[in-house]
Amino acid sequence: MSPAVKYTLGRVGLFVVVALVLWPVPDIDLLVKLMVAIIASFGLQFVLLRKWRMEMIGQVDQAVTRRKADKAKLRSALAGDDEDD
């Protein structure tokens, strides 16, 4: 499974868990419970999903590096074509 998908599912799952924990709390509006769940899951993801986040960052970094290399290769090929004319 892709690290980005795994991290995204982890974030959504963390939100659902926090929302379910807050669900039975009386005297709090549903919107407030969901807002608290968003904020709490945002804070918790820094601690609980650190490994997955680092894997995703590594994957994105590799993709950026590969694209830069491909772009440089294409530019040099195009520059070589221009010099031949």
UniProtKB/TrEMBL annotation:
It holds the Pfam family DUF4229. It comes from the Bacteria. The chain crosses the membrane at residues 7-25, 31-49. InterPro entries: DUF4229 (IPR025323). Keywords: Membrane, Transmembrane, Transmembrane helix. This is DUF4229 domain-containing protein. The lineage of its organism: Bacteria, Bacillati, Actinomycetota, Actinomycetes, Micromonosporales.
